[in-house]
Amino acid sequence: MANKKTTGMLVAALILAAVVGGFFLGKKSQNFRFFQGKKAEKPVITEPTPAPTTPNINIPPGLSDFEKRIMLSANKAMASVVNISTEKKVTVQPSYNPFFQDPFFRRFFGGQPYQPRSQVQKSMGSGVVVSSDGYILTNNHVAGGMDVIRIGFSDKRTFEAKVVGTDPRTDLALLKIDAKDLPAITIGNSDKLEVGQFVLAIGNPFGLTSSVTMGIVSAKGRANLRIADYEDFIQTDAPINPGNSGGALVNLEGEMVGINTAIFSPSGGNLGIGFSIPSNMAKDVMDHLLKYGKVVRGYLGISIQELDPNIKKSFKYSGEGALVAEVIPDSPAEKAGIIAGDIIVDYRGKKVSSMAELKKLIGETMPGEKAEMTVFRDGKTSKASAEVIELKEEAPAPRPGVEKPTRFGIQVQDLNPQIRQQLGVPNSLEGVVVAAVEPDSRADASGIKPGDVVLRVNQTLVKNSGEFSQVMQGIGTDQVLLWIWREARTIFVVIPPVGSSESQPPGEE
């Protein structure tokens, strides 16, 4: 009996051990699968699948809701950001070497040592898939003017791309590849972005594909950066590095709110100041390129300047707006009665806060549409209406502006027929020509130079040097506002007291 009891207990123990051992072996096999993973399969390149609304990713336990949101947003958008590699054949001029003039050296290096040679220039950038049938948005400086453009996806697929259209004025380009069912990104509303909001920058910096960095929106509406003609940049501290250009700036919903374009960096490294084209502007450009093959913009026919405190003081104006420095003859603006010195404070129901904003609003107006404006002139506001025409590519580009004014010192002379002919001043203009500017004076520092023609001083027209002197005597050391003609254009220049702010350069719309 004892032996049977002992045998039974032994069998029970063995069964229990087998059950417990099977449980632990099962757990151990799961751990091995987690660390080793499944055997890699060859990627399918013929039938790409769209990015899911909620990415099917493994989220480790213990993460905060904020971390989970970042992971989901990044993975949702990453599949839509592609690598762009380009090639362009360029001609290189060889450097001069005096030894090649010696017949002895020319025997070994050939008889034409200075012939230009061709070489292939290669570069890399990023792009964003904006439609499932193969349209890709990127920067013009990434893809514009290239001979070969290749698109690379994260699953190692590559496609040859063709350029649908480019818009150098905003630094955008639209590409097309022959593919279907691509993971198109969701385009968000950049107007809803707020300063301090978290964003992700996704791209291929230094050729490192599918890289994600995080930061916040540092500022909105950045302009006058000389990056593009039309600027309304989102500034972010999310690191943007070489190769990120053309990639996506993404909100925490996984929506594209911008196209990464440039960084501010004197040294070439990242300093936490990056700029992205707002998604709303990018979408408008894309729609125009698809519909017209180019971007159609409005043209009013005015040269405009920024309103700095000195100019406001001279015009006895305290609000916001943009100053009209010149009106192009026979333009919609001239026909609407707008004159130089007007301040446009409202355009089509929208308040104008800067020169860049007015430029953008005019550009967004379709040719043939009416532009109702509120204009400040001589201490009061009035209404003006113009029918906008199309901006042609040959329209004059914005001119460089004036330097920061500090002190005063200028000498003028009458505008006689000889000087008028030499400078090309139209007979319709009357004024005095600047003969000399005192070095280190306020006028010198303000950018006034010999050859400038002064047409008006503080709203008073001057026809000769006598009138100019009389007006200037009544000013003394106060601030001076000059309307001058220079190189076939007119601009306003302020000669303010020491320590005043710098004027912005004028631009034409």
Describe the protein in words.
- The structure is a single chain.
- With 509 residues, the chain is an alpha+beta fold.
- It has four domains: 78-112 and 119-177, Beta Barrel (Thrombin, subunit H), CATH 2.40.10; 186-292, Trypsin-like serine proteases (Thrombin, subunit H), CATH 2.40.10.10; 298-390, PDZ domain (Pdz3 Domain, Roll); 410-508, Pdz3 Domain (Roll), CATH 2.30.42.10.
- The protein is 22% helix and 32% strand.
- The chain is built from eleven helices and 28 strands.
- It has helices at residues 2-36, 65-78, 103-109, 140-143, 279-292, 309-314, 332-335, 355-364, 417-423, 442-445, 465-473, and strands at residues 81-92, 117-129, 135-138, 148-152, 158-167, 172-177, 186-187, 198-203, 211-222, 233-236, 248-250, 255-263, 274-278, 298-299, 302-306, 322-327, 343-347, 350-351, 370-377, 380-387, 389-390, 410-414, 432-437, 453-457, 460-461, 480-486, 489-495, 507-508.
- Strands 15, 16, 17, 18, 19, 20 and 28 form a seven-stranded antiparallel beta sheet that branches. Strands 1-2-3-6-5-4 form a six-stranded antiparallel β-barrel.
- A hairpin with a 2-residue loop joins strand 26 and strand 27.
- It is elongated.
- It starts with a helix and ends with a strand.
- Residues 1-7, 9-53, 395-407 and 498-505 have low confidence and may be disordered.
